[in-house]
Amino acid sequence: MMNLLHWRLLVAVAEAGNISRAAERVGITQSGASQAIAQLEAALGFRVFSRERRHVGVTALGGQVIEHARAMLERLDAIRVLADDSQGLSGGRIRLASFPSVISTLLPGLLRDFQRRHPGIELVALEGTDEEVEDWLAAGTVELGVVLNPAPSRAAAVLGHDAWVAVLPASHPLGRRASESGVTLEELAAQPFILATGGCAVNGQRLVEQAGLHLSDLRVTVRDWASACVLVREGMGVALVPESTLPDEQRGLRVMPLVPVIHREFGLVCSDAGKASRPVQALLEGLLCKDGSPGNR
């Protein structure tokens, strides 16, 4: 069964000349993209792409299919702009602020999906610390902000959550125990410590202090989570980072759960200007539908 994703994927592959880059653009895995292309070619009865070692080309018939797919997607965007016009949404702008780790992980898919549904609305993403995001929301500089651990009274739209984990050199004594045993904040605080802030006031040092402890040997402070993991791999100390920021390559590292578990939660919060913005409400309604509310049925 061919659907809109298949056509978007075809156009993306033709433009990128590469399946993995096209898959990233449309928001699916490379294996999912390869499977979708195979399904579509089977349904059509001919090959759309010619595979070479480092490049994906387009066959003669495939080129005609892609022209039709591109025209179809353009018509769909035009229909969506027309729909937005009828609701007074076109020409609107949303300024959305977040701290770095969320901008690079949770937000790209959200913003891409929203802009597909509402091509007439401009989305501007601003990066700052969690404290700067709060200041921008209070001042009305932005309509939406990603807030860390929002209070229930703020009626935040939850984007996701993750847990804090300990990152140790692979040979560290604390890492020799079973993973399910975990590591406590007290144990980490007594070790040579690499502090990564991630541009957030809520970081490893804050968690340690909130537990009534202190870092006995703070070796280095860095902003980037990845930099902390590199220093840990070099044996300079241990670190406490959010699970979602762990590097793909963990060779030389031992990752242990924190005991007891401490979570971070991310929520989208409106400023006063955002509460009165129709484009912002359209974005939030889209989030609710995605989460399985009645609007998604």
UniProtKB/TrEMBL annotation:
Secretion signal, residue range per the UniProt entry: none
GO cellular component: a single term: cytosol
Keyword list, A-Z: DNA-binding, Transcription, Transcription regulation
Transcription regulation found in the keyword field: yes
Annotated InterPro entries: HTH-type_LysR_regulators, LysR_HTH_N, LysR_subst-bd, WH-like_DNA-bd_sf, WH_DNA-bd_sf
Pfam families: HTH_1 (PF00126), LysR_substrate (PF03466)
GO molecular function: DNA binding; DNA-binding transcription factor activity
SUPFAM superfamilies documented for this protein: Periplasmic binding protein-like II (SSF53850), Winged helix' DNA-binding domain (SSF46785)
Domain HTH lysR-type: 2-59
Family: Belongs to the LysR transcriptional regulatory family.
Record-linked PANTHER family: HTH-TYPE TRANSCRIPTIONAL REGULATOR YBHD
Protein name according to UniProt: Transcriptional regulator, LysR family protein
Organism name: Pandoraea communis
